[in-house]
Design brief:
This protein is of the alpha+beta class and 88 residues long. Helices cover 43% and strands 14% of the residues. Helix 3 packs across helix 4.
């Protein structure tokens, strides 16, 4: 098989909450806090989850990798990003 060929699997890729189930506990917690509270900054997430800022950054990265979290610049402070969950 050449490197340009893709391997097809019979299983569809997990989406939404199904995809979140395969992530570490910190990412699941961040997702649930965003689901419950709506849009939050990284520092607000760290405060709500009681997780270190580094762990929250890692969790947000994992959530962004599976496209369940969106970020935008804060209107109040352009240095910060506001994160929202994109699944219901």
């Amino acid at each position: 098989m050449s490197t340009s060929e893709t391997v097809q699997t019979d299983e569809p890729a997990a989406v939404g909450w199904e995809a979140v189930q395969d992530l570490p506990p910190s990412a699941k917690l961040v997702a649930k806090i965003l689901d419950y509270n709506g849009a939050l900054t990284q520092s607000q997430l760290a405060e709500e989850t009681l997780l270190p800022a580094r762990t929250v950054r890692y969790a947000l990265g994992r959530l962004e990798d599976i496209d369940v979290v969106e970020s935008r610049f804060s209107f109040n402070d352009a240095r910060k990003r506001v994160y929202t969950l994109t699944i219901e």
